[in-house]
Specification:
Length: 242
């Protein structure tokens, strides 16, 4: 999908759009998708992460109250930390989201991509509260979220692949649409299941990818690195010490 043809298309788009503002950041940001303090600490120690996303399923595994876990994450990581509301009505989303936002200036309120959610995103935007619109599975959904003023849109690529679709095609469409109309909403590639998703997100120009710790570890692994290191360490033993 992201082959020579795609690069050619990007080049011609650059020509077509010469003079217009490109929204790509200097480097794709890497968030960890986790509610596990220990693994967030480990990823943080690797210097790898710029922020954190959580969801109710991840926090259920943490076995502690949501606000407690979010506060602990905020103490560890100085970057955007997404905490999700579980209310599904406008007033409920507002109440919950405001409470989450009051916890720490880095909190981003994660809101589901439903009608009541978009209304709440518009209000949060007017109040200066950052939002991450989650459970995005189509380009029109992403366009509506951007119009409501979402800070981030989260297309779930792995879950689209799970039902036989091409999750990365959606990321490509959203990046193109947001670039066409200079939306400030950042594309946060979510439901990342493997290093290929991650590198495709970077090639497409996604602003952020949120990645489980298991996949962050896979990103750094290469058998030639391990074999090469083993050989260097073996040969080092043969070096005379005096
Ligand atoms: C994103 O913010 C979600 O927490 C997450 O990426 C969902 O991933 P999953 O489809 O692997 O549960």
């Amino acid at each position: 999908m992201v082959g020579a043809g795609h690069k050619e298309a990007l080049r011609s788009e650059e020509v077509l759009t010469a003079g217009r503002r490109r929204r790509s950041p200097l480097c794709m940001k890497l968030f960890i998708d986790s509610g596990d303090i220990d693994e967030i600490r480990e990823a943080q120690a690797m210097g790898a992460i710029d922020g954190v996303t959580t969801n109710p399923s991840l926090l259920a595994k943490a076995g502690r109250p949501t606000k407690e876990v979010l506060m602990a994450i905020c103490e560890l990581v100085d970057g955007p930390i997404s905490g999700e509301v579980v209310a599904t009505d406008y007033q409920g989303i507002l109440t919950e989201g405001r409470e989450l936002a009051a916890l720490h200036p880095n909190i981003v309120v994660k809101v589901p991509l439903i009608e009541e959610g978009l209304k709440a995103v518009k209000t949060f935007t007017d109040e200066g509260i950052k939002t991450n619109v989650t459970l995005c599975f189509s380009a029109p959904q992403a366009l509506l979220a951007a119009k409501a003023g979402a800070t981030y849109i989260s297309p779930f690529v792995g879950r689209i692949d799970d039902i036989g679709g091409e999750g990365m095609d959606l990321v490509e469409q959203i990046v193109a649409i947001y670039d066409n109309y200079d939306f400030d909403t950042q594309v946060l590639t979510a439901s990342v299941r493997n290093p290929t998703h991650f590198i495709q997100a970077a090639l497409i120009g996604s602003h952020v990818a949120t990645v489980p710790f298991k996949v962050i570890r896979q990103l750094l692994k290469h058998p030639l690195t391990d074999n090469g290191l083993a050989r260097f360490l073996e040969d080092a033993k043969k070096i005379p010490t005096s």
